[in-house]
Amino acid sequence: MKRCVLGAIFAGMLAVCLQAVWAADGQQPEASATLPELADSNWEAEPQANRNRADVEEDIAELTAMTEVGDEGRRLKLYKRIAKKSTNPRNRAISLIAMGNMEFTDGEYLRAFKAYEEAVDKYANLIPLDKVLAQEFHIANRYFQQPPSSTLRNVLNERSNMRAREVYDHIIRSAPYSYWAAISGFWAGIVQRWQKEHLSSAAYLRTMINRFGDSANADIQRLVGSAMVELAQSLKAGAESSDGDMNLMAEARSWLQRFLQEYPEHSARELAQELLKELNEVEAQRLLYLGNFYLREAHRREPAAQRYLQQVLDGYAETAAAADARQLLADLTATESTVVPESTPEAMPDRTPVPVDKPNTLLPPAADTSSSQSPGAPATPVDENEKWLLPIHDL
Length: 395
Known about the structure:
Layout: H1 2-25, H2 53-65, H3 72-85, H4 89-105, H5 109-123, H6 129-144, H7 153-156, H8 158-174, H9 179-194, H10 198-212, H11 218-240, H12 246-262, H13 269-293, H14 302-315, H15 320-337
Helix pairs in contact: 2-3, 3-4, 4-5, 5-6, 5-8, 6-8, 8-9, 9-10, 9-11, 10-11, 11-12, 11-13, 12-13, 13-14, 13-15, 14-15
């Protein structure tokens, strides 16, 4: 019982969220669609080279003879056989479209999509392409959106959302500039964000905006505006899941600013303003952190701190971080004004050594002037046999 109650509460919350998204873009998926019909559904003769020609013509004759309220099971079987055995492109196209319509009516959405997909891929020039793509879009919504009375399993189940994206992808690939490609690109982005594939979601939405930004269709233009807001949300979620990638945050801010400038009357403006306020607060807190970082003793660089704190005030004055930045700047200014200039240090004494006269030990001692002999005369030995060295200057 508790699980059922919680499931019901969650179902209600989910329905409210979906309604909010649809209200923002004005493109709530339709609950029903008109089944595509071929303008010319007349059968053609099978080529003579077809070895199954007789079987195909027999099946066609049986289908033609059937009333409108005939055996639907038998009718579907005949269409499948013709689609398989016929070699005539028109006959195959007629069968595939009829198969898709019958499977869709029976709630067999995957089988219906496969029939439509083959018809589009092989016989696009023989079928009402726009109507078939519209039908594929409604099939995708059957996977992504479920009636309120149904279980949440098909809404939240990963396989179901992947199937919805597969259908959206086929529409975009088959007619990339069509109306249905525009809304398929938008909803593919929403599906991917539900799957927490935020960067993939952003890629879908970015492509849709770039491709249809100049569309003259008023509905497409309104949807482009909604895609800008959704893109900002996907980028913000991607940044938060990747440790705060500031490049993604900056891109998200730029898309919101562009949206607010280009769509003054859009119903999603209030949501965009709230998102922009959140993103501005994140950037302001980052700059405030850098300012505080350069005020720490280990990294103190007051000019750098002042630069970052001033950026908070210049660009994000309305954020909560601005009050802290303003106070830090005031404290820095007060500190600078109360600093006492340091006195000039006394001049160091001149410690250059003073030269002192010293005897030149490399010269011989001065001659004794008290001797009776002349300065240049050699000393005369007392003993004739005694030997003396001559003075250096006489050498």
